[in-house]
Design brief:
Elements lengths: L2 H9 L1 E2 L8 E11 L5 E11 L6 E4 L4 E7 L2 E2 L5 E4 L2 E4 L9 E9 L9 E5 L2 E5 L19 E8 L4 E4 L2 E6 L2 E10 L6 E4 L1 E9 L5 E9 L7 H18 L7 E7 L6 E2 L4 E5 L12 H16 L8 E2 L5 H19 L2 H20 L11 E2 L8 H34 L3 E2 L1 H12 L8 H4 L5 E9 L2 E9 L14 E8 L5 E10 L3 E6 L7 E4 L8 E3 L4 H10 L3 H20 L7 H11 L5 H8 L4 H10 L6 H18 L1 H10 L10 H21 L2 H9 L3 H14 L3 H11 L3 H13 L3 H11 L10 H13 L1 H4 L5 H13 L4 H7 L11 H16 L5 H11 L1
Parallel strand pairs: 2-12, 18-19, 19-21, 22-24, 25-31
Antiparallel strand pairs: 1-23, 2-3, 3-9, 4-8, 5-6, 5-9, 7-8, 10-11, 11-16, 12-15, 13-16, 14-15, 17-18, 20-21, 25-26, 26-29, 27-28, 27-30
The structure holds O-methyl-L-tyrosine and zinc ion.
C-alpha cells in the first residue's frame, strides 16, 4: 500500500470503532446574535459524566473561541486544548458531578460558501447541519447518538426568525424557540430573513391543530399552494397507513435558493431547495410536481423515521433514508398510479444505483468505513436502502410488515438505532431468522440471477443460480436471501399460477410447479421483487407475448424494455435488430385499455448510458458514438413504422382546458410528448415548433424546446425562452440543462464552455452549477467525445468549485464513475483527469476521497 493510501486509510472512520459518548447531554441553550460577518453564538450545555476521569471532547471547525467556562468559572489556558477539529477539556478540569459548560464563539455566515453550518443566501440566514455542519456553528458533541432538548434565542434584524419546536416568545428583532423533543445536533435549524408565509392548518387524528407555513422570498408566495396541499396529504397518509401523528403545534417549511441537496428534515423546520417547493403551471413540469409532492412527503415522514427514531452513527444512514424513501415511494404509488411509479423507480435505480454498484464507488447500503460522510448520501444508501425495506415487506406480507413497523416505533421511539435493531424488530415480529438477509445491508454489489427452465410430465421447474461479482474491499460474496415473485401464464395469457414469492437462499436452487397441462410462460421477478440483474435466455417472441399479456404491469413493461435493449445492443454493434420490438409496440400504442402514462413509459427508449452498461454487461466495450447512432436509428425506425398511429395519438392525447398536475392529464401529456419525440425525427421539428409557440404550460414548453435542441435547429427557440424567463432562476436552470443534455453530441463540450461565459452562469449557486454540468454529463456521447474535451472541461470546473463548495464538487465527480467501462483511449483520458484532480494541492477531503476511490 502506498504511503498516501495508508494515510487515507488511517484517516477513515470505522464502524467497528464505535464507542458511546462518555457524557450525557441533558439540555442545550443556544443564543444567537446574528450578523453577516460576526455572528456570536453562546452555548450552554448541561452535561453529566457517564464514566469518571474522561476528558471532554467537543467537535468544532472554523470557530473563533471567545470564552469557555465550566459552572461559571472561566477555564485557564492549560485546562483545555483547541485544534482544527475541536476542543478538549482535560479530565482534571472537569467536575465529577453534572455541570454546565458555556462557550461563546464567533462565526462569519457571509463567508460560508460551502453551505454547511450557518450561511447566507440572498440576504437570508440559513443552516444545514446534516451530517456534520453543526460543529461549524458551535463546539458540540456533533454525533447523532447525542440527543438533547434545545432552547434557542435569536437576535437579529430580520423580520422572521425561526428555529425548531414551538415559538414561546417574540418581539421586534427577537424570537425564542423551545423544542420539547430531544434531538441530535444534525436536526437543528435556524432561518432568519425577510420572508413571507403561505399558511394553512392541519388537524391531527387526535385533534391537535397544527399551524402550517411555507416561508419564501417575497414574490414567490403564489407558487406555494401545491406544496402546502402535498404536506397535508402527507400528514394524513402517515396517520392512515403507518399510524404516525405529528407531534408539535407548528410545522414550518422554508425555501432557499442556495442549497447543496434537495431538502432537509430539521425538526419542525424543514429547509428546502426552492426547486422542490415552488410550482406554478407556467414554471414547473408534471415531473416537477410529482417530485415536489414526493420530497415534501419524504421530509415530513422523516419526523418519525429519522427524527423520533434516529441513527446511532452515520454508518446507519440507510436506517432512516432507505425506510423514508420506501415510505415516500409508497405514498406516491398510493396517490398516483402505483405500477407507473414502480417502473419509474426501477428505471432510476438502474440508472443510478446499478451504475454505482458496478463501478469503483460500489459500497454496501451500510458502509463500514468512510473518510467523508457527505460522500455517502448515495443511490445505494437511499434507493437500494428502500429496495431492502421493500424486500422485507414482501417476505413478511402486509400484516407482518405493519406489525414489525408498529414494534419498531413502540420499542425505539426516542432512541438512536442501528441496522441490527431494525432487523431484530422484523425477527421478533415474525419469528423468522433474518441473519442471511442482513447481507443485503453489509455486502455491496448487484447479484446476477440466472434462470433456466425445464418442463416434463406436467412438472415445470425453474433452476436459479445467484452470483455477485467482487466489489472494492469485498472479494467473496456468499449467497443472499432473495425473494423472487413469480407467476405462470398459459398460452392465451391466462394466469395459471398467480404471483407467489419464492425464497432463494442458496447459490443454486430449484423450484417446481406440478400439474401443468402444457409448458407455461414464466413471469419472473414480478414488481421487481429484488434489486438483482435477471439473466434468462428468452426469445423475442416470448417477450412480445409478455408485453402483450403479462398481468403484472411491471413485467409487462420489462418485457418491452428487454426487447428494446436487445435491439439497441445489436444495432450498436453494427448488427440488424430483431423487428419484434417495433412490431410489438404497434399493438401497445393502439391499446386504449392501457393507461397513457404506462404506454408513455413503454415508448421511452433506454438512455444511452443504460445501453452502454448493457453492452458492458455482455462483455462488449461500449462505443458512445455507435450507441447514440443506434438509439437514433431505432427511434427513427419506430417513428416511420408507426407514423400514422403516433400522429393520431399526438392529436388524441391533447389535454384541453386549464392545466392541472393530476396524474390523469399528466399521463396523457406524457404519452403525447413521447409520440412527439418520435415524430420529431421525421418532421424536422415542425410539430415541436408549433407546440413550443403555443404551449401554455412548462411541461409542453420544455419538452418542445428539448425536441428542437435535438434537431439542432434551436437557436431561435433558445433565445426566446431565455428572454421570457431570464428573471426566473428555476426556469433558467432548465434552460441550461436542456440545451446540453439534448443537443447533438458533437456540439456538447463547446456549448458547455460557451455557456460558462454567460452572465447567468452564477456557478457558486449549486443549482446553476449542477444544471450546466449535469446537462453535459447527461449527454452520454457528448461527455465521452473522443477528443476528451468534455472530460478536461468537467475536471477543470470540479477543481474550480472545490475550494468554494467541496460537497457539491465531490458529488458531481461521480460523472467519472463509469470510466473503466470504456476503450483504452477514453479510459486513459479519464484516468488522467482523475489523477490531475487527486494530485491537486489543498484539495478538500470530500473531493480527495472521491478521486482516490474513483481511481480504485
Ligand atoms: N437528510 C436529507 C438529505 C440531506 C443530506 C445531507 C445534506 O447536507 C449534507 C442535506 C440534506 C434527506 O434525506 O432529505
Ligand atoms: Zn431523507
Amino acid at each position: 500500500m502506498s504511503a498516501d493510501l495508508m494515510a487515507q486509510e488511517t484517516a477513515s472512520k470505522r464502524l467497528s470503532d464505535y464507542q458511546p459518548y462518555p457524557f450525557a447531554l441533558e439540555t442545550v441553550r443556544l443564543d444567537f446574535r446574528l450578523d453577516p460577518q460576526e455572528t456570536e453564538v453562546r452555548a450552554r450545555l448541561a452535561l453529566s459524566p457517564r464514566r469518571a476521569a474522561s476528558a471532554l471532547r467537543l467537535d468544532g471547525e472554523e470557530l473563533e473561541l471567545l470564552s469557555l467556562a465550566i459552572d461559571g468559572r472561566s477555564l485557564t489556558r492549560d485546562e483545555y486544548t483547541v485544534d482544527k477539529t475541536g476542543l478538549t477539556v482535560h479530565a482534571a478540569a472537569l467536575p465529577a458531578q453534572p455541570f454546565t459548560l458555556d462557550t461563546r464563539v464567533k462565526i462569519a455566515p457571509e463567508a460560508n460558501t460551502a453551505l454547511e453550518g450557518l450561511y447566507m443566501s440572498n440576504g437570508m440566514y440559513c443552516t444545514q447541519c446534516e451530517a456534520e455542519g453543526f460543529r461549524k456553528i458551535t463546539y458540540f458533541p456533533d454525533r447523532p447518538d447525542v440527543m438533547a432538548k434545545f432552547h434557542v434565542t435569536i437576535r437579529g434584524e430580520a423580520p422572521v426568525l425561526l428555529s425548531n419546536g414551538d415559538l414561546v416568545a417574540q418581539e421586534d428583532g427577537f424570537a425564542e424557540w423551545v423544542d420539547p423533543w430531544p434531538k441530535p445536533a444534525y436536526l437543528f435549524a435556524l432561518v432568519a430573513g425577510d420572508l413571507v408565509a403561505h399558511s394553512g392548518s392541519f388537524t391531527t387524528k387526535s385533534g391537535r391543530e397544527v399551524a402550517l407555513n411555507i416561508w419564501v422570498r417575497k414574490g414567490d408566495e403564489d407558487r406555494c399552494a401545491f406544496a402546502l396541499e402535498a404536506l397535508k396529504r402527507s400528514m394524513k397518509w402517515d396517520e392512515d397507513v403507518y399510524g404516525r401523528e405529528y407531534d408539535l403545534d407548528i410545522f414550518n417549511i422554508v425555501a432557499v435558493d442556495d442549497f447543496n441537496m434537495g431538502a432537509m428534515e430539521n425538526k419542525g423546520l424543514n429547509i428546502f431547495n426552492s426547486k422542490w417547493v415552488l410550482a406554478s403551471p407556467e414554471t414547473a413540469t408534471d415531473a416537477d410536481y410529482e417530485r415536489i409532492e414526493g420530497i415534501i412527503a419524504h421530509e415530513y415522514f422523516h419526523n418519525w423515521t429519522g427524527n423520533r427514531i434516529t441513527c446511532r452513527d452515520w454508518f446507519q444512514l440507510c436506517l432512516k433514508e432507505g425506510l423514508t424513501v420506501y415510505r415516500d415511494r409508497s405514498f406516491t404509488a398510493d396517490l398516483r398510479l402505483g405500477p407507473v411509479k414502480r417502473i419509474e423507480d426501477v428505471i432510476a435505480l438502474r440508472a443510478r444505483q446499478f451504475r454505482e454498484d458496478q463501478g469503483p464507488l460500489a459500497h454496501p447500503p451500510r458502509p463500514d468505513h468512510y473518510r467523508e460522510i457527505n460522500n455517502f448520501y448515495t443511490a445505494t444508501v437511499y434507493e437500494k436502502g428502500a429496495e431492502l425495506v421493500g424486500m422485507l415487506h414482501t417476505l413478511l406480507g402486509d400484516a407482518g410488515y405493519r406489525a414489525a413497523l408498529d414494534l419498531y416505533f413502540d420499542r425505539h421511539d426516542g432512541q438512536a438505532c442501528t441496522i441490527e435493531d431494525w432487523l431484530t424488530v422484523f425477527e421478533d415480529a415474525s419469528g423468522r431468522d433474518l441473519s442471511q438477509f442482513k447481507r443485503w445491508y453489509t455486502d455491496a454489489g448487484t447479484p446476477v440471477l440466472r434462470v433456466r427452465e425445464q418442463f416434463e410430465d406436467g412438472t415445470y421447474r425453474l433452476d436459479f443460480e445467484q452470483d455477485t461479482k467482487p466489489t472494492p474491499g469485498q472479494p467473496g460474496k456468499p449467497p443472499r436471501h432473495i425473494p423472487i415473485t413469480v407467476g405462470l401464464l398459459g398460452p392465451n395469457g391466462q394466469e395459471l399460477v398467480p404471483s407467489t414469492v419464492l425464497e432463494m437462499t442458496e447459490a443454486r436452487q430449484s423450484f417446481t410447479f406440478e400439474g401443468l397441462g402444457a409448458r407455461p410462460v414464466p413471469s419472473i421477478l414480478r414488481g421487481f421483487s429484488a434489486p438483482v440483474r435477471l439473466e434468462r435466455d428468452v426469445s423475442a417472441r416470448e417477450l412480445a407475448f409478455l408485453l402483450a399479456h403479462d398481468t403484472d404491469p411491471f413485467n409487462r413493461w420489462e418485457a418491452g424494455r428487454q426487447l428494446a435493449q436487445d435491439a439497441l445492443v445489436a444495432l450498436a454493434q453494427g448488427e440488424d435488430a430483431d423487428p419484434a420490438y417495433i412490431d410489438a409496440l404497434g399493438a401497445l400504442i393502439a391499446d386504449e385499455s392501457a393507461d397513457p402514462a404506462f404506454r408513455a413509459l413503454c415508448l421511452r427508449l433506454p438512455a444511452e448510458d443504460e445501453i452502454a452498461q448493457s453492452l458492458h454487461d455482455r462483455g462488449v466495450t461500449p462505443d458512445p458514438e455507435a450507441i447514440h447512432a443506434a438509439r437514433e436509428a431505432l427511434a427513427r425506425d419506430l417513428a416511420h413504422t408507426h407514423e400514422d398511429a403516433l400522429t393520431a395519438l399526438y392529436e388524441a392525447m391533447a389535454v384541453p382546458g386549464p392545466y392541472t398536475p393530476d396524474p390523469g392529464p399528466a399521463g396523457k401529456r406524457a404519452l403525447r410528448l413521447a409520440a412527439l419525440g418520435l415524430l420529431n425525427r421525421l418532421d424536422g421539428g415542425a410539430r415541436a415548433t408549433a407546440l413550443f409557440e403555443n404551449a401554455t404550460n412548462m411541461t409542453e414548453s420544455l419538452a418542445a424546446l428539448g425536441f428542437l435542441v435535438q434537431t439542432g435547429a434551436d437557436e431561435k427557440a433558445l433565445a426566446s425562452f431565455r428572454s421570457r424567463w431570464e428573471g426566473d432562476r428555476l426556469v433558467m436552470d432548465k434552460w441550461f440543462i436542456v440545451q446540453l443534455a439534448a443537443c447533438p453530441p458533437e456540439r456538447a463540450a463547446a456549448r458547455a464552455a460557451a455557456l460558462t461565459e454567460d452572465p447567468l452562469f452564477t456557478w457558486k449557486t449549486p443549482n446553476r452549477f449542477r444544471a450546466l454540468m449535469a446537462g453535459l454529463a447527461g449527454n452520454h456521447a457528448g461527455f465521452h467525445a473522443k477528443d476528451g474535451a468534455a472530460y478536461r472541461f468537467y475536471a477543470d470546473w470540479l477543481l474550480r468549485l472545490d475550494p468554494v463548495n467541496p460537497q457539491v464538487a465531490a458529488r458531481m465527480s461521480t460523472a467519472f464513475e463509469t470510466w473503466t467501462r470504456y476503450d483504452a483511449d477514453r479510459r486513459a483520458q479519464m484516468q488522467a483527469e482523475l489523477e490531475r484532480i487527486a494530485r491537486t494541492e489543498g484539495l478538500s477531503r470530500d473531493l480527495s476521497e472521491m478521486a482516490t476511490r474513483l481511481l480504485g
